[in-house]
Amino acid sequence: MTRRSTNSVTLHDVAAHAGVSPQTVSRAIRMPNLVSESTLAVVRTSIAETGYVPNLAASNLASNRSMTVAALVPAVSYSVFAETIHGLDAVLASKGYHLFIGSTDYDADREEELIRAFLGRRPDGIIVVGTEHTPAARAMLAGAKVPVVETWSWTDEPIDSLVGFSNREAITAVVDYVHSRGYRHPTFAGWLTGSDSRALDRRLAFEQRTRELYPGEPIRVVDSGADGISIAAGRALLDRALREHPETDVLLCASDIFATGALLEAQSRGIAVPDRLAICGFGDFELSRHLSPALTTVSTPNLEIGRRAGELLLSRMHGETAEPTSLDLGFSLAARDSA
Amino acid sequence: MTRRSTNSVTLHDVAAHAGVSPQTVSRAIRMPNLVSESTLAVVRTSIAETGYVPNLAASNLASNRSMTVAALVPAVSYSVFAETIHGLDAVLASKGYHLFIGSTDYDADREEELIRAFLGRRPDGIIVVGTEHTPAARAMLAGAKVPVVETWSWTDEPIDSLVGFSNREAITAVVDYVHSRGYRHPTFAGWLTGSDSRALDRRLAFEQRTRELYPGEPIRVVDSGADGISIAAGRALLDRALREHPETDVLLCASDIFATGALLEAQSRGIAVPDRLAICGFGDFELSRHLSPALTTVSTPNLEIGRRAGELLLSRMHGETAEPTSLDLGFSLAARDSA
DNA sequence: GTGAAAGCGCTAACAA
DNA sequence: TTGTTAGCGCTTTCAC
């Protein structure tokens, strides 16, 4: 009945080497101030000499804390969410927490699937982009018995805590801006095919504000469809906007990625930006300020969302903050040359 | 002596609910074909009704398999490595493996630290960018008793397996190309301050090939230094190159990010590209082909490295491939308009 | 300041 | 096909 052990050095081995009990070794690692100087020294020597690496799965099981956080983002590659992840990781890694990262590919069902899978890891906290989830996903998050932080959106009814900003207000501000600058025929360009609720928020906000500021004007929207989110899609969006709505004098893009593509396409066609056609982006990528004309866009707190979400998680996991907290990090309009 | 349990549903609870042994529930989950149809149905009902979520930490401890893979990359935000991670995750997630991702920030000491921390999670496999590590890091990787895949570089002495390409050959190909196109005064631009061995490889290859093809010509190199890797750094590099080496007629950038910045800076200064100054990049970002002039660059198998590394890990973790494997995925020169 | 005992929730080995 | 037993390596609780 003997089982194949992991045949790696255990707490037991270190204890034997040091001539103390396993318990003392465990204390020496986790609460060194409760152990005498002399035994501490012996234990540390033994750890080094045996090459001991604590097995965190065993620790997890015994202590019921995994020292992990699950993070769910729509995408990592070339996205603003990579910065959020970076901020989150920077805050959590310094406290010994490691991140499980999952890409939902902007798909609510895939998000649900990932939540189910990650729950088996018993994360000590969960961070998720967005406030729209499937009913099952929402139930799992609410019932997970660990702090949950939703991000990148805004709602009055978060599952638990919230760190984000209002996408609606941001687009409203953009429409206000282009209206004040005298543009008369705005067209919205985004990816509306996927189940990305932030994109939907932006589009709806566009429609509403356009109705308010441009009474009688038709609502113009173009969709990148199967092209998804890419520079090539942005180029195609410009083409679509110009063909379907030739009167367009300003293109409001749901992402700087689209805006970049649209700007490059306009330039290759000899369309003057912003004189013949103005372009606005969303996200304020580093590239955007370097383009010429520099892109007018919405600057979002990409990194800060990750940092603050991490800090919130930490304080909740350590029982310092009992209350769910909603944090509005806001946005700012970076008015530059393209509109 | 009773301990506070995790008070979540366990295998035991499900077994009681279903009127079978815990072992049978475990089998029903992991090897359903070894369980009769009827009991399987009962067990599945019980799982659903109790809302059971397996505790993977316990599973890990008992089976000595964590179903996790540790991935170490220099950076995630806006980097080619995000694509590699994406490819890796796509392959591994479908088999139930989850990823621990760590950012080394191009720092070998930080890499060592992360390896030490991740080893406590007992990953079933490790993937790491680069073949240069601190001696301690190398020793840990070699002694980890799990498959290790190094990536994005090339060496004749990998720790275990290798999926990458030769950065030296890639830069050599670029120098050959610009030489064949008649450029006479190449300057290399990169970030040489950090401990990024791929950047060093590229720089050394540049120096060697330049000596061979341009005898008597001085070796021109500019460093982004504290600016790191960004578009702004690329702009500064162009400035530096032109001031320190005004004879430069082609700028070989160690990344498309630099090349993009250099191109935009040249344009804002009214410097004709490629006539007055040609520019080459490295990495073939999506943006690069859309710039005008389109960027001549080295196309690297970003996504494919992740996929193949994942597949290699899978076959090694499942004991199908015993032998360490080295895979040269190569590169290609995307000759476009900027050089 | 240190140690002994019990058990976290699961799977491997064996038996039936 | 199913059940029993004995751990995996650690932390908690309690006793000294």
UniProtKB/TrEMBL annotation, chains A, B:
InterPro entries: HTH_LacI, LacI/GalR-like_sensor, Lambda_DNA-bd_dom_sf, Peripla_BP_I. It comes from the Bacteria. The keyword Transcription regulation applies. GO terms for molecular function: DNA binding. Keywords: DNA-binding, Transcription, Transcription regulation. Residues 9-63 form the HTH lacI-type domain. The keyword Phosphoprotein does not apply. Pfam families: LacI, Peripla_BP_3. Coiled coil: none annotated. This is LacI family DNA-binding transcriptional regulator.
